[in-house]
Amino acid sequence: MSNTPIAEHALLSDCHSAALVTRSGSVDWLTWPRFDSPSCFARLLDEDAGHWSVTPAVPFQAARRYLDRSLVLQTTFSTAEGTVRLTDALAVGADNTGHRLGRGAPHLLVRRLECTAGEVEMLIDYAPRPEYGLIRPILSPTDGGLTSRGGAEWLVLSTPVPLTVAGPRATGRITLRTGDTVLLGLHRSTLEETPARVWSQRELADQIDATAAAWQSWSGLHQQYRARGRTWCTTAAASCTA
Q1: pLDDT tens column, 205-225
Q2: Bridge-partner residues for 44, per DSSP?
Q3: Which CATH architecture has domain 6-224?
Q4: How many helices (H) and strands (E) does the chain have?
Q5: 176 pairs with which residues across the strands?
Q6: Residues 11, 71: contact at Cβ < 8 Å?
Q7: Which residues pair with 181 in a beta bridge?
Q8: What does the domain layout of the chain look like in residue ranges?
Q9: Which of 152, 119, 140 is nearest to 38 (CA)?
Q10: What are the pLDDT digits (tens) for 105-121?
Q11: How would residue 78 be classed by pLDDT, with cut points 50, 70 and 90?
């Protein structure tokens, strides 16, 4: 079992499934395509049950927040040499404003790295383990990323960062300097679905922006509820003081 307390995990969701991300930038839980589907990352339960970490190579401090009125997570890593902001989102579908949120979710996890000051070396450690860690998939390089085949799961990792494959695990390093931005994406499908693919940097950036906007649109519909609640509270307070 992981030594990271559950309180150190932040939640991502596309309204169909969920991911849990640690303060150090590791996805330690992810189920696709449903909340109750078998996991492809489950380090939350066992150290060898799969993870995807993106973390500084040097000591750091981390601060986290959700982008205003959304489930888009921003983690800021501060080191002695510089600062990097990691933005994580489980992408929602196209035209997902208001109550359409989550319709047609593409089963895509997007991670954006932005260096906001100085220079920081980042480590990428990718170890998918479908079926709660029971399957050690075959990783194969492809143009623009890696494919992962294990059981019914077809995972495609989009990355401009060269990764070294060692069995069912891939690792890499990238040094980011002020103004640099790199996006990573993990897309999932099965044999019965349209195959997962490599996504371009522009496509991944658009997915983060669209997902934040969709959550904010949905949230806006539910932050205006005042009249009935206030009336009930006023009535209840009056009854208690009578």
Answers
A1: 999 999 999 999 998 887 765
A2: none
A3: Distorted Sandwich (2.70)
A4: 2, 15
A5: 120
A6: yes
A7: 114
A8: 6-224
A9: 152
A10: 999 999 999 999 999 99
A11: very high
